[in-house]
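User: Please fill in residues for this 271-position structure.
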């Protein structure tokens, strides 16, 4: 169930001072990190949009992984070898992940209705697929998108195995979501936004892909999360809001109970 949200009217140009959204990490880190993973040389620290759902950012045995979704040292669109999909499925689909990812809560925040089309961008092994499929029902559609062909093949097998007749998996390029204009109602991006290079340009493509009134939901790690990417890769809610707001979205920061992440909603206006 969607709860209270803060709406930010964006006056981005000329230093139009959007304030920190409520429920976010405070804006102090935002000023220091505004340039990170944006246009220019630092964009080379970012990957493409197929960066999966971040379980490999956990501490402990997963904490050493810093590639593709734990990456941040390679060029835009580059990524580590994910050919051993089953190995990564053990990480991404670890049942312990549910305790902090709270997938039911995340999907509930999307406000999905039967018959809608939802895209999971950076879907990885398909962690959210069954829940998204159930939320939109047999008349709806789930598009599971990833830049890694082996992950797409894994999701195709999962879709068949779990009988998710309304779901489709497909590969997308690193610099575009691969969606037709006005084709989707909701786009879910979990633990992936901080990997995308040229994010403002990418946001404009998401804006075009959404139907009027549709929303993008960015779920990403807080600045003080014990798991997640290195500090220099993390984004505050203010940074995410500015990047999406520049594309014309109306921005809301949602209240939730995720222990390590925030949720930013970006809605395409109906007019």
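Assistant: Residues filled in for all 271 positions:
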């Amino acid at each position: 169930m969607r709860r209270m949200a803060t709406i930010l009217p964006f006056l981005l140009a000329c230093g139009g001072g959007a304030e920190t959204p409520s429920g976010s990490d405070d804006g102090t880190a935002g000023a220091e990190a505004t340039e990170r993973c944006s246009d220019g040389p630092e964009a080379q620290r970012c990957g493409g949009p197929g960066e999966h759902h971040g379980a490999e950012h956990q501490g402990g045995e997963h904490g050493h992984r810093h590639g593709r979704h734990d990456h941040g040292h390679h060029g835009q669109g580059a990524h580590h070898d994910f050919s051993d999909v089953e190995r990564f499925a053990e990480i991404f689909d670890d049942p312990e992940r549910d305790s902090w990812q709270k997938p039911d809560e995340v999907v509930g925040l999307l406000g999905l209705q039967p018959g809608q089309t939802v895209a999971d961008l950076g879907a990885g092994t398909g962690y959210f697929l069954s829940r998204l499929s159930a939320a939109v029902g047999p008349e709806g559609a789930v598009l599971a998108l990833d830049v890694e062909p082996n992950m797409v093949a894994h999701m195709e097998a999962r879709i068949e195995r779990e009988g998710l007749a309304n779901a489709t998996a497909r590969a997308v390029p690193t610099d575009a979501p691969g969606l037709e204009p006005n084709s989707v109602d909701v786009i879910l991006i979990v633990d992936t936004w901080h990997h995308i290079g040229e994010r403002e340009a990418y946001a404009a493509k998401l804006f075009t892909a959404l139907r009027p009134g549709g929303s993008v939901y960015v779920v990403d790690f807080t600045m003080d999360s014990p798991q997640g990417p290195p500090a220099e890769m993390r984004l505050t809610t203010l940074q995410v809001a500015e990047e999406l707001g520049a594309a014309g979205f109306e921005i809301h920061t949602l209240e939730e109970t995720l222990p390590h992440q925030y949720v930013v909603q970006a809605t395409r206006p109906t007019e």
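For context: Residues 5-267 form a domain with the Rossmann fold fold (CATH 3.40.50.150).
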